């Protein structure tokens, strides 16, 4: 089995596999289903796993890692690249190290490879469901929160730190106070939301982009079928004897980003890795570049259309 290419990150000695398996599912999968799927992914060759406190998948991922070690599927935890995320309810200076430690406890790990701020907003309460009332939504104290993230790295709880769903404006705020700049910005990116401006900005600042929802998050409450049912992508796939998903994933890879893709289906898991031994033609890339663009994931669709939320969604 051909290895998955890796990418080097700033302020991180360990390279990251360019394809990771996402573990966010809607509705959330039960522990055994998630654990079985993750073990299957390790057997298929995945070595990068993306989780978050908010997904409820840290515990099954931790159990799957322990099981993979027991079964000899991997020799050491160091073979894996594990990303998790700080949830908005803990986005305060004094809660960040304890929150990272809580995630490590869930994962049964001594460290994660990457710790991200999940969204650029703070919630003053724990939430069980969304949308939420506007009284609990607050601006992020960027300076204080980033200091907490840097402390997690300095304590060895994480190898690298970064952000998720941050605009150019929010990244500027982080960079203006950071002693350690963010290694990654994980954002929605796919052929129908190509993020050209953000990609250019991140490139100039040495921040790597990881694309989530590279296939449009079909069958979730925030995603849709615009990619899977795109005629342009389907025509390219047919001509190349690939799946539409493989074309969309290859497109993202050719833009120089890494990607997190989620499937608990054994065959699709394998298909999603088969994008490295072929490339798109200039003509095919031109067709994809002309696809109509629309953001799929908004903070308003999760928390509700409150003023601060809409302001964050409108930022570029």
UniProtKB/TrEMBL annotation:
GO terms for biological process: secondary metabolite biosynthetic process. The record marks 85 as: Lowers pKa of active site Tyr. SUPFAM superfamilies: NAD(P)-linked oxidoreductase. Signal peptide: none annotated. The active site is at residue 55. Residues 19-290 form the NADP-dependent oxidoreductase domain. Pfam families: Aldo_ket_red. The keyword Oxidoreductase applies. Keywords: Oxidoreductase. One of its GO terms (molecular function) is oxidoreductase activity. Substrate binds at residue 118. The keyword Oxidoreductase applies. This is NAD(P)-linked oxidoreductase superfamily protein. It comes from Forsythia ovata.
